[in-house]
Amino acid sequence: MAMTRWWRLLLPLLVLAAWAGGCGPAQARQRDAGTGCMADGLRGSTVSATLRLEQHKRSTPLLTSDMTVRVPRQWPHARHLTFGEESPQYRQAMRCLLLGDEAPGGRSEWRPHDPVVTATDAAVTVHYVAYNWITSANPVLVGPWQVIPTGRTWMIYLWPPTLHTARWERIEVDLGGLSFNDLVEHASFSTGTHLVWEDKLPEEVQVEVDPPWQRLLPMELGQSLWATAGIASWWVCASILIAVAALRAEPAEQATGRGAARRPAPEEEARPSTADAPDTGSGQDVSFTRTLLEWAGLSAGVALALLLFVPQGRFSPRSHALLCIPAGVALVFAARPWSPAASRTPAGAGPDAPARPADSRRRQALAVMATTCAVAGTGLLVILAHDVFGLPGSLGARTTTAFGRFGLALLGLVTVWLWLAAMAAWAWRFVREGGLLRGRRWTRCWDDDPVRCVAVAGSVLAGVAVVLLACAWWVNERRWERVNWLVEQPDPAAHNAALSQMFANFFYTDLRWLYAYSWVLTGIALLALLRFRSRPPGTPGRQGHERFPLGPSRPDLLLTVSLFAFFVGVRAARFAGAGALYGVWLGLNILALYALLALGRRWSVLSRMGEHWRGERLRGEQDRNELLEKARQYRTANHQMHLLDQGHAGQVTCEQLEEKLNELHQWVVTAYEGDDPPEQISVLDLALAWGPEGHWWSNAVRAARLAFWFGTPATALLVYYQAQDAYARQQALYSPIGLPEFIADLVLYQLGWAVAGFTLGALWRLLPGHRSQGRAWLLTAAYGFPAVLAAALIHLMDTDPRQLLLYAALLLAILTLTSVWMDLATFRRERKYWPSGFALLVSIHQLRGLSVGVTWILAQFVAIVTIFKSLTR
To answer: Are 700 and 761 contacting, i.e. CB atoms less than 8 angstroms apart?
Structure first.
């Protein structure tokens, strides 16, 4: 043990003095010295205390205090410890034992359960376990221990609120393998992992710990501008991406799908399209591009303002409200949900007819603007008439009157409603201009009765705002009960002050959380632009667009891979705890998908057949039906060949089957330009590679629906895992935005699975592989390449990579199941001829191929179960 360096005690003592001085007279007034604890009766008590520090494979270090106190029966409150936990005598006795005259609300430690009390004739034993996390440079209290981060070291002291005169027979500190220094050098013995004191005073326990840089770096970054800069980089990158995608999306008359048929069938040219899509031309292309550019600039600017220029604590609640309310109004007006470019031409109208009557647009604008201004005026009224509500000019939380808290709550609801309305208005504009709405009921209702639509939508948004406020209030009450669990009648003034503070912070805390998820609007905008550009022929303004393209055009590929990067790829950065690298991860996922597509252009089944073959054999719906029929004949011939080998072929001869297979092969060869096509590509491979639908967009939508439902159990599994983590559970139950964050995670998980399936369906014909499971594996690999860097970062930061592995395994399983059901959908017209879907699947993949596929799926489930068990062990 090193020599005592008394000069090193100066810094911790100064820190303790400053911290104690910070309590000041205000906290001294909160101390309840008149509780009648009769501490002299505790002199005969014996105490054993243990502190465990767990930081290996944890992003947030955990401190656990385990204390056992043996109280003599002579203490007047000893018998009260055996009373019911709700009795006033029990609470007073336990408070005297654990807190003394310390204010109960000053501790934020957590308890896995209430203290366990056992009694004998001579003594009463209390076993008290508490835990807490080191999340910042502020002192951490847990049981009788204090941990004070001081620069690059952590100081550990045994500083019990009471029991100073008791006999501490055993004191143990387990540091989880970290380097330490016993400053007083009074430890009875020590090993490489912990120290033990026997029959020592609490003042003799002073330990200096050297935490690894992996634990110091997140705390330093979290309190610096780097964390804000990282989040800001995400918004900047997202805005740049949507701007580039919008500018690169030239009018679809000039865009052709890669490998599209050279000429549509005459019957397809003459057939009108029944797709529900916008009925405007290149003029709306320009309008939609302008809409996306407006959103890109506004979203980035507002996000930077919220992150950089409106930090909590720098300005008063009044300043926050004066900034946020006008900003919310401006965002609603900038969205212009009444914009004429957002509507379709009425049925039966001529080509020169206006998109919507002017009076209808005027009524829509009036309804939106009047409602928005009325709500904003209510909030401004609270600010201007603060004296009526009994609020100070700064709208601070000094008030404890019920009417004042009502004013603060009303102001918060107004602000949150305005920003919810802004996000809803932008979402409506994206969805409508992009043609994502199916049917015209919604648009007809908006055109015919905008006042009722605004009233319904406003009521729904008001309900959401009230739910957010109710969540914040519920969490505040739970926290108040937790920190005052030993107080029979807490101070009403202190409770009202805490409630007022919650209302004062509500609109700012929830507003930042709410806007943090507005990036989903960017995803909706990308999807709307992709839908807008992928409209089938027959739509006015889209006559030159091929009906059966091989896949998305070059600009549309950027939109597709961007969606995947937004909703799926960035999960790797989140699991790695690298929020500052969100922008980098976005680019890496886009590059990984483009690298995969570069491979697919050369090795995918349809790409190897060439454009000439696709132009001859896939000109229209009739040709595609012929391909499916040839694929059915191929499967039947192979099945009969298998029966022939077993002697059960009936009247069919081997020569007949070989002639049939050769005929099918010649059907493929005759349309091939150049040398013979690859022998291993059969007509069945071609049918499966084309997918169940004619257009790649329809393939994408079908795969997205399948992946959404297959992902539901995966979402439940991930949420269950998160609930097992104590830190995540406490954040969900005791953070002001915990419950909304939990619900947002559920939604985003489901959206992630759906977008992964959408990407698989959109790129179905461009991905290499003879079997559909191979396409699922390759798309997961595109996610996995950046995830390898995330795993390396996780390993470097000494945190747990298993959640990242679990997510990747679930993604692969979902995409594999989606690909199998896509194969079934390809031959769905034959379903009536088979006793079950499994029998049809056997026919499609043949027995040997199906056995390999089933084995592969089972292996994935085994991997998922293994990873999950290791996570919850």
So the answer is: yes
CA distance 344 to 276: 10
Rounded to an integer, the average pLDDT of 765-789 is: 83
Q: How far apart are CA 661 and CA 197, in angstroms?
A: 85
From 559, 589, 521, 598, select the one nearest 250 (Cα to Cα).
Answer: 559
CA distance 825 to 822: 5
pLDDT of 247 strictly over 90: no
Contacts of 57 (CB under 8 A, 6+ apart): 798, 799, 800
Chain-centroid distance, C-alpha 202: 45
CA-to-CA distance for 623 and 616, rounded, in angstroms? 9
DSSP letter at 829? G
Burial of 789 (C-beta count, 10 Å sphere; 0-12/13-18/19+)? middle
% of the chain surpassing 90 pLDDT: 17
Q: Which of 106, 643, 383 is nearest to 98 (CA)?
A: 106
CB atoms near residue 758 (< 10 Å): 28
- For 132, residues 6+ apart whose C-beta sits below 8 A from its C-beta are 62, 63, 108, 109, 110, 140, 141, 142
pLDDT tens, position by position, 253-305:
344 444 443 444 444 433 433 333 344 444 555 677 788 888 888 877 777 77
Q: Read off the amino acid at residue 668.
A: V
- Asked whether the beta carbons of 99 and 32 are under 8 A apart, the reply is no
Interval 412-424: pLDDT, tens: 899 999 999 999 9
Gap between the Cα atoms of 812 and 477, Å rounded: 42
- Give alpha helix (H) positions in 670-801: 683-690, 696-724, 726-734, 738-762, 772-796
Rounded distance between C-alpha atoms, residue 502 and residue 496, angstroms: 10
Report pLDDT for 760.
94
- Partnered with residue 181 across adjacent β-strands are 208
Q: How many CB atoms lie within 10 A of CB 563?
A: 25
Q: What are phi and psi of 482, to 5 degrees?
A: -70, -45
Look at residue 854 and tell me whether its pLDDT is greater than 50. Answer: yes
Q: How confident is the model at residue 850 (pLDDT cuts 50, 70, 90)?
A: low
Does this model's pTM top 0.85?
no
**CB 808, CB 776: distance < 8 Å:** no
Q: Are 510 and 226 in contact (CB under 8 A)?
A: no
Helices 358-384 and 441-448: crossing angle in degrees, nearest 10, is 70
Q: Are 692 and 828 in contact (CB under 8 A)?
A: yes
pLDDT in tens, 705-735: 999 999 999 999 888 888 887 888 888 888 8
Q: Which residues pair with 50 in a beta bridge?
A: 66, 172
d(CA 867, CA 423): 38
User: Is residue 648 scored above 50 in pLDDT?
Assistant: yes
Written as six digits, the tokens of 14 are 């100064």
- Closest to 75 measured CA to CA, from 42, 115, 36: 42
Alpha helices in 489-548 (DSSP H): 492-516, 519-533
What's the CA gap between 404 and 518, in Å, rounded? 31
Closest C-alpha among 426, 421, 424, 419 to residue 291? 426
- DSSP β-ladder status, 46-54 and 167-174: parallel
Angle at 855 between CA 853 and CA 861, to 5 degrees: 105
Q: 594: how many CB neighbours lie within 10 A of its CB?
A: 13
- Residues 259 and 550: their CA atoms lie apart, in Å, by 5
- Whole-number Å distance between alpha carbons of 744 and 755: 16
Q: Is 674 helix (H, G, I), strand (E, B) or coil?
A: coil
User: What secondary structure letter does DSSP report for 169?
Assistant: E
Give yes or no for a contact between 634 and 664, defined as CB atoms under 8 angstroms apart: yes
**Per-chain mean pLDDT for the chain:** 78
At 404 the pLDDT is 85
Nearest residue to 301 (alpha-carbon basis) of 528, 515, 511, 567? 515
The predicted pLDDT at position 473 comes to 92
